[in-house]
Amino acid sequence: MTVPFTGFQVLKGHFSRTFLRVGYHKIVEIPAGAYNISIRETKKSRNYLALKTSRGTAIINGNWVIDRPGIFNAVGTQFTYQRPNEIRSRTGESIIAPGPLTDDLHVYLIYQQPSPSASYEYVVPLKNTHTTPETLTTTTIATSVSVSPPRPSEKVQEVGYQVATNDIITEKPHPNLVPSKPSLKPHRLPVYTWTKNGYMECSATCGTGRRKMFWECVDNNLQTSVPADFCDPALEPANQEEDCNVQPCPAYWDEGEWSECSKKCGPGTQHRQVICRQVTHVHTNGTETSVTVASQLCDSSDEPVTKSSCQLKICSQWEIRSEWSTCSVPCGVGQKSRKVVCVSNQGEVEPDEECNMNLKPDALHNCDMGTCARSWFTSQWSQRCSAECGQGNRTRTTVCLMNHVSHLPLDSCDGKRPLEVTSCNSGPCQNRLEWYTGPWGQCSAECGNGTQTRSVACILQNKGRMEVVDNMKCSSVSQPITARHCMLEPCGVRWYVTEWSACSRSCNGGYRVREVRCLTDSISPSTQCDPTLTPNNREECNTQPCTAQIKPSCSDQYHNCMVVVQARLCIYSYYKSVCCTSCSRTQSTYPKSFQKNYIRR
Prior knowledge:
Elements: E1 3-5, E2 8-16, E3 23-30, E4 35-41, E5 48-53, E6 58-60, E7 70-74, E8 77-82, E9 94-97, E10 105-111, E11 117-125, E12 129-131, E13 192-199, E14 209-219, E15 224-226, E16 241-244, E17 252-255, E18 268-271, E19 274-282, E20 288-292, E21 307-310, E22 317-320, E23 333-337, E24 340-343, E25 349-350, E26 364-368, E27 374-379, E28 391-395, E29 398-402, E30 407-408, E31 421-425, E32 432-437, E33 450-453, E34 456-462, E35 465-469, E36 483-486, E37 493-497, E38 510-513, E39 516-520, E40 538-541, H1 561-566, H2 573-578, H3 580-586, H4 592-598
Antiparallel strand pairs: 1-12, 2-11, 3-10, 4-9, 4-11, 5-6, 5-10, 7-8, 8-9, 13-14, 14-15, 14-16, 17-19, 18-21, 19-20, 22-24, 23-26, 24-25, 27-29, 27-37, 28-31, 29-30, 32-34, 33-36, 34-35, 37-39, 38-40
């Protein structure tokens, strides 16, 4: 008869160094089949634990990417990754998994802070062996006070177990051996009881830790250990833990995380919270319970600083890259500008937000170019009369402009507004059939291409009398269109002119001038007008000969009209009237270049 046997082996280890190069450093390789896996930092630090498969595939914190704490599934089990971040916690990172592993697991430490320290523990099963009652004496039962064997609830017939630690493994013969040939000597029935066998190491060296007690099944007759199955499981003591090292721990300074730098660039400061704490209890799972105590209980000479200087980068500066531009208008109030950019300490242009907006130099500045002159401008008269015979009209457009070509309201120009309609006569109408057209309707579009319509009627004109007749009588006459395209703001340009100035001379041939400009529909300057249609800006006038006779009513009313003559003010009507005699004698002698410069526009 064979007895199935399943053993296990508990493996522990500790990793610690003083200094390492920054990066990944392997702690241990845990083989496939291991279970009850526990990997922990012994103290809180800026180092990180990391896991990879045997093929190098990252599980936790791989490829320089730090994962958030949580649950990770890999190599046949579930890993729980914890990273306490509270200021009151002094516990480091931990990774635990129930197992068993389906592949080898490689454990690493990402070194960033000196004196890293981490411990690990896992269980590996031992291979099955077959024994008979005759050879049962070779079965090994080894115990250690460092770890607890698996519970019988795992439904495994346990004959023994083995714990591998730094302790010495001892071997003892099985206490309940049956000889191959039974003795004829009578013996007492054995009695088995639960007996305390030892303790695990206390979970803390101070501040009330916990330690687990080990109980073993003992043959009272032989006072030797036997498998746990020999004792009544219902009588196994329930109290498996007790307090230990209850003396208080020394207080310590608990350092919080540094805050962000107070400035995005340039010298700044950062702060952190530092409080005095004392551990009151350390649990068997490694967690601690601590309380805040008076700062006098901590070592004042070792108190961490709570304020530190910092500088993320050198601040960018404003740089002026151009001179002021010319004023945006030739007259009136306008603006001039210059280029101001934000430049990094490397000389690269950055968004304005990277520089101090309160220190930005002005990029715009008002400029006053003086009062603007305002003049009436008119387009050319229409070429055709509105009526083919009889009385009609011709039209033109009038605008009020400043001398820098800004469109003003029509009531802003001085003087009388020029006429926009003038009469014309195309000759008498006698027994003439013609189409009479009504006014065009409103354009269907406010701007761009639209359509407008009008009504037509056949009219018989005879000696000034007009009579509406049947439209068929006008069939021989081309009928005007009743619909057309329209554009309230058509694209294109036109010539505009001002009124003629006064004649430079009253007799013997002078000249007068006017301004001519090519403007778009938005009244802005253009060079697209047909140059062959440019209106004249100068023409001769008053070509009749001068008479030396001075009218009796013409006399000098100014006490010193010679000053008026010398200042050449006679071209103005006011001075001409008050110094009539002097101006009449000398006006014909003015040079044309002088008259041109002083003609009133």
